Amino acid sequence: MSREGKKQFFLTPLQVSVLATLLLLAILTVVAMTSLKLYGRYDTTVTRRYSLSEQTLSVLENIHREVRALGFFTPAHPHEEKTVELLKQISDATKYFTFEIINPEKNPGRTRKYGKIVSGTLVLESGERWEKVLKPNENTILSAVIRITGDEERGIYFTVGHGEQSLDDTAESGLAKAMNALGSLAFDASPVNLLKLENVPEDADVVVISGPTKDFFVDELDNLYAYIEKGGSLLIMMDPDHLPELEQFCQRFGIHLGRGVIIDKSKKITGSDFLMTLVDQYSNHDITGEIDSVSIFPLSRSVQVSGVRREGITLFPLVRTSDESWIETDVFNLFNNGICRFDELEDERGPHTIAVACEVEGVSEDMQNKVGRIIVFGDSDFVQNTYFDQGANGDLFMNSVLWLSREKDIIASPPVVHEFYPIILTKPQLQLLFWLAVILLPLLSLFIGIFVIRKIR
User: Fold this and answer.
1) Other CB atoms closer than 10 Å to residue 273's CB: what's the count?
2) Could you give the C-alpha distances from 304 to 247, 313, 317, 358, 436, in angstroms and in order?
3) H or E, element range at 356
4) 157-410 maps to which CATH number?
5) Could you tell me the pTM of the whole model?
């Protein structure tokens, strides 16, 4: 066949441009569709600001009821974008959560069921139960999800009448932040005076003794002992005050509260005195196994595991100080004169345990085996408003309450309130920073300057 018989096709520049454009659009379409199915993100912030907390993910993994969120936002509402992003993260984490954004001005019929609705309100529904969230964030949404999907609120009682810390006090020494954290997980916190009751309230999932300054009466402790034997749970946070009856009560379970104050100068926090103990050693327990940051105990005593205890009691040390710590027994000179030095004859070198968990096998009234639980901390200040958000303090408290209430599935790092985060430096870190910033860097600049001047000359 001659060359004249072959047909040759040529594309004009315009046709080439059109085909190239169509090919590019096809590639972009495929990439876009693939990215929608293979969507992913990675949060590089230290505080995981743009990620759901481990506790939220744990709660979402354990809900098996449909939850629908209705966000009522008028156009250009300042918080709509942030709320929608949060709702999308939650819906991506579980198939049981869906959401919808509604303009209340254009859909008044959708708002009538929920009463008065202002722009920015979020309504969460599950079956016949629903709840309004006026200020949507991870904490408030998590709290509402737990309440509308759970069977009922859990009762937690704080003892009063012995100089304990105030529950609703927003001052530095109060427990308002701890109460907010408990409320976010559907705990109903209430004060209880055991002197006015014959028994611990029947709906008490957990009883808390927080920082007493006066001792308990024998009848109160007998009621608590019977409560533990029937499968109850007790959290004791006790400072270095000498309270013989309460100490003897702990001894009945093989938990010995040491005398004196723990000192650890090797892990002293910058800007604080040596009574502020920094702890980063935890045991592999449900309460502390996932904690990977430091805890701060402003004034602590040791909580020791005793070898003398009845059968059926199991003890778990939770938090431990460093080898360089010791128990300062001369508290008079410590508090009055500020004198603090290790005495080999009087003081005991570390490490020392600050918190112990305990399981107690008992028998209930219907003769069924019950396991009571106790946790004893050698400090109560670590849950105060001043320290609750510092390090792992809040995690320690909340994980302890969840373990005591048998809520193992949601023990994890809770949602973080993103406020001011102070930099905590130990003494060795402060010394290193001093040598680098004050000595080495200026000297390096000086030597470079001298070198440059000599080169120029």
Assistant:
1) 12
2) 12, 14, 8, 12, 41
3) strand 353-363
4) 3.40.50
5) 0.69
